[in-house]
Design brief:
The complex is a heterodimer of chains A (304) and B (582). Chain A is mainly alpha-helical and 304 residues long. Chain A has helices spanning 4-23, 27-33, 38-61, 66-77, 83-90, 95-107, 109-123, 134-157, 159-194, 197-220, 225-236, 240-250, 253-302. Chain B has two domains: 8-458, ANL, N-terminal domain (Rossmann fold, 3-Layer(aba) Sandwich); 476-581, 2-Layer Sandwich (GMP Synthetase, Chain A, domain 3), CATH 3.30.300.30. In chain B, helix 2 (30-44) packs across helix 4, helix 3 crosses helix 4 (100-110) and helix 13 (326-333) packs across helix 15 (358-368). Classes of the chains: A mainly alpha (304), B alpha/beta (582). The interface between A and B is medium-sized, with 26 and 30 residues.
């Protein structure tokens, strides 16, 4: 359970995070990104194509209860999380593309998320009380659009304030997850102990398979390895706190408990998954850079 | 040796509307220039700031004209009254572009001391050489490189170190964030173990002495013939020597750069993008001194590489002017954000340092719809010798006409004038020519002949006085007795769209003595791959057979100097090393 106070706190933190995301870029960045839209489009395809479908298939394959299914599908339909930018940075991947994908997926989430949620809920046969009203989701996303735009305006008016908020937002993204760890786990360790393996599998698998599929789809669509790694992280890392917020605003009591399980587990484990993947990706990036250097030397020798 | 002055370009001055007689600034020295200009422009300039420093994420700090005046006074007080320097003592300033730079450099002038501009990327060995050679007593160093201090201090006469940071004078929160990122994220701030004082503390200490001795007293007696700056050079040729530039040299050269830009400059209304390092003579004179003089706003970029670091500065400031080198302009033209939204406020750009490729110049005009022209100069000439007028038809590939007040001759190996239209070495005489190299009469004698400075650059001059550099004397390639000028071959190859950059050198060859070799870099925005065979074919179409490279090597990048000049000598060295090993 998450108390009303905690829900409010979560809401405020989300607002700051979105403020920071808005401050991370300018309107002109968008215009430029869409002049050569392929990278962003491939990213969006991975984000909104792979993840919801993956969530749906996992729910089906594991034969999850309606409550868990709702949580998993909601998680799959979320836009990219701002923490992906941090992991992208440490992976030596393409930071600009990561920021752009997070922002674009968050902006179009307003239309995309309710539609996808509706579609996959229907497909999964979710009805009645287990259905998250599309209007609610749209409302939350719309409310979050406001700080995003304020962030962009602040960035334009005063780069010092803008860049400071950007940093604050990024750090809060991590803080929210810690907040969940410290408030939720101690009160729910019994629940965690009794949670069956397949729930963990679904929560962890969504991130792991998302990253893997994102990478392969990006490679198939002719993105270079470094951009593909960026897209992979961006695909796998969803906006967990946003899902938690939507659940707490939509469900109460026992039901909230059940629906919340996967989004919370996902948010916790994605940090671990991404850290491992980052170590691996970073090594790949370094090796590729070294290989390029060797080629340079080779060219010099061959040119003798 | 004849003293003939070629009058040919004086007619050209008239045509393009440049006054043939060099204007004079009414100041005795650079300290007075600083003081008077800051006083005047504090109230009259449209710019809210004299200097801004912008880091890649857009965070920034700024100093008004009044602050620059006050802070440089305080630094002068620190140097003279606290450290105890005497007039003419040397102070090394080793900072990237940041707000501490103008404060320290102008403070040195106000103290009546001599500035020693030093590249922050220098190795310990290079620092030791430069500080010992110049006899520097105080070092103003960026904190990022404080780990070099123990080794350097042990072997030099530096008695006081002043540390400044990149976000110096930033507002508190952004300043702390930039420092935090430098320290914990990028890990570029080493622990400082050597004795030092922070710039802020030095300024406070200096400020306290001004009541007793105002800064003016330190510079009252400094005249135009007094030494202002030791600007080290030789990075691209050999052992580093200090060119002795006087207050008069620099004051005159400010006027000479203004003669070039006057048609597109309005005092009090300009904003210049300063991406080139200020420790280099080009940006030092043209940007720092030149724009301060006319009340312009200098937007300082601490590190222009990658060139994307310029994006927020270009977006957030009404840039009206740019100075740069070929690689910088070319770099910007390969950035989508720049090409899609070139600065609307831009009026004109000046290229220097190395030749501006015709293809780059034309594309720059297409993209920005503003003129770009090449100037020519050297460290020894403060730096401007000649320039292309910004008005009239652009003459790409030319280094223009001599600046007002400058005499130029083209000479053969015996020091005699060559006939018009024939390549000869550029000799320069004028108020911007250095006094000589610091404490090395031998080196000075090699380049100074009866007041003429021999540049080592070979050029041809047309009837209108426009010169075209054929090449560096040292870079010329001798293929079976024929002269091949690398620039010419580079220009031809640079015309190929999918070539980003090119460098041409001569390598020893058993058959022809020397052979032409080209190094090319793929343009990443072009899907077509650079193939050596295509380059050769292109060269065969446009060049005489003996000029066509014997070998074309594709590389990821070319070795470059701090301002982005391609270093042919490094390529030659790599080849020599390979051959020695083989």
């Amino acid at each position: 359970m998450i108390s009303e106070f905690e829900t409010k706190l979560l809401g405020i933190m989300m607002i700051v995070i979105m403020l920071g995301m808005g401050a991370s870029l300018t309107w002109r960045d968008f215009l430029i990104a869409f002049r050569k839209p392929k990278g962003v489009l491939v990213g969006l395809l991975c984000q909104y194509g792979i993840m919801p479908l993956l969530a749906f298939l996992l729910a089906r394959a594991l034969d999850l209860s309606p409550g868990l299914t709702v949580g998993l599908i909601l998680m799959g339909c979320m836009p990219g999380g701002t923490t992906s930018n941090i992991f992208t940075y440490f992976s030596k991947a393409v930071l600009a593309l990561s920021i752009m994908m997070t922002s674009v997926s968050s902006l179009i989430a307003l239309g995309m998320v309710p539609a996808l949620l509706e579609f996959y809920s229907q497909l999964a046969g979710l009805t009645g009380e287990f259905k998250i009203p599309a209007g609610n989701v749209a409302q939350v996303l719309f409310v979050l659009l406001v700080p995003t735009i304020i962030g962009m305006v602040l960035r334009k008016l005063n780069p010092n304030i803008g860049a400071s908020i950007e940093l604050l937002g990024g750090m809060l993204g991590v803080a929210v997850i810690l907040f969940l760890v410290f408030t939720w786990i101690p009160r729910n360790h019994m629940l965690l102990a009794s949670t069956p393996w397949y729930v963990f599998f679904a929560a962890i698998g969504l991130g792991v398979f998302g990253i893997a599929l994102g990478y392969f789809l990006a490679r198939v669509l002719k993105q270079d390895p470094n951009r593909s790694r960026t897209i992979a992280l961006e695909t796998g890392i969803q906006n967990g706190p946003l899902a938690v917020l939507i659940v707490t605003l939509t469900f109460t009591g026992e039901m909230q408990q059940e629906v919340l399980l996967i989004p919370v587990l996902y948010s916790l484990f994605i940090v671990i998954t991404s850290s491992i993947v980052t170590v691996f990706f970073r090594r790949q990036s370094t090796e590729e850079a070294l290989a390029r250097d060797r080629m340079k030397d080779g060219a010099l020798v061959a040119g003798k | 040796m004849s003293d003939t002055i070629h009058p040919s370009w004086h007619a050209t001055y008239q045509q393009v509307g440049i006054a043939p007689v060099l204007a004079q600034l009414p100041y005795r020295n650079l300290a007075e220039l600083t003081h008077e200009c800051c006083k005047k422009w504090q109230s009259e300039s449209k710019a809210k700031a004299a200097f801004s420093c912008v880091v890649p994420n857009g965070m920034n700090g700024r100093l008004s004209f009044a602050e620059v005046d006050e802070l440089s006074d305080a630094f002068a007080g620190y140097l003279r009254a606290v450290v105890g320097l005497r007039p003419g003592d040397r102070v090394a300033v080793q900072l990237p572009n940041s707000l501490g730079y103008p404060v320290a450099a102008l403070g040195v002038f106000k103290a009546g001391c001599v500035l020693v501009n030093t590249n922050p990327l220098y190795t310990e060995t290079e620092m030791i050489h430069q500080f010992n050679n110049s006899g520097s007593q105080v070092l103003v160093l960026v904190d990022m490189f404080a780990d070099k201090l123990p080794a350097v201090l042990a072997k030099t006469g530096i008695k006081q170190v002043v540390l400044a940071s990149v976000p110096e004078f930033f507002p508190a929160v952004p300043g702390a964030i930039v420092k935090g990122v430098q320290k914990y994220w990028n890990r570029v701030l080493p622990a400082v173990t050597s004795p030092h004082i922070r710039l802020k503390d030095a300024l406070a200490a200096g400020r306290a002495t001004l009541a007793k001795t105002p800064a003016k007293q330190y510079w009252q007696a400094v005249g135009r013939d007094d030494l202002a700056l030791l600007q080290y050079t030789g990075g691209t040729t050999g052992v580093s020597k200090g060119a002795m530039l006087t207050h008069g040299n620099l004051l005159n050269n400010i006027c000479q750069t203004h003669a070039m830009g006057a048609s597109h400059m309005k005092p009090g209304e300009e904003c210049v993008l300063t991406a080139l390092p200020l420790y280099h003579i080009f940006a030092f004179t043209a940007n720092l001194l030149g724009y301060m003089t006319i009340g312009g706003h200098n937007v300082l970029i601490p590190n222009p590489r990658p060139v994307q670091n310029l994006q927020r500065a270009v977006e957030n400031y009404p840039i009206t002017w740019m100075t740069g080198v070929n690689t910088l302009f070319n770099g910007l033209l390969n950035e989508e954000w720049f090409v899609a939204y070139p600065p609307k406020t831009l009026k004109a750009s000046i290229s220097g340092g190395t030749s501006l490729h015709t293809a780059v110049a034309q594309r720059w005009r297409d993209v920005t719809k503003t003129p770009i022209a090449e100037g020519y100069g050297l460290t020894e000439t403060s730096p401007v010798v000649s320039f292309n007028p910004l008005t009239g038809t652009p003459r790409d590939g030319s280094i223009g006409i001599p600046a007002p007040g400058t005499d130029v001759r083209l000479t053969n190996d015996d020091g005699h004038d060559v006939p018009p239209g024939t390549p000869g070495e550029i000799w320069v005489r004028g108020p911007q020519v250095m006094r000589g190299y610091w404490q090395t009469d031998e080196e000075t004698a090699k380049v100074m002949h009866d007041g003429w400075f021999a540049t080592g650059d070979i050029a041809v001059m047309d009837e209108a006085g426009f010169m075209r550099i054929v090449d560096r004397k040292k870079d010329m390639i001798l293929v079976s007795g024929f002269n091949v000028y690398p620039n010419e071959v580079e220009d031809v190859i640079a015309d190929m769209d999918h070539v980003l950059e090119v460098a041409v050198i001569g390598v020893p060859d058993a058959k022809t003595g020397e052979a032409v070799r080209a190094y090319v870099v793929q343009n990443p925005d072009h899907s077509k791959e650079v193939m050596p065979a295509d380059v050769l074919e292109h060269c065969r179409k446009h060049l005489a057979a003996y000029k066509v490279p014997k070998l074309v090597v594709v590389r990821d990048e070319l070795p470059k100097s701090p301002i982005g000049k391609v270093l042919r000598k490094d390529l030659r060295k790599a080849v020599a090393d390979e051959m020695n090993r083989a």
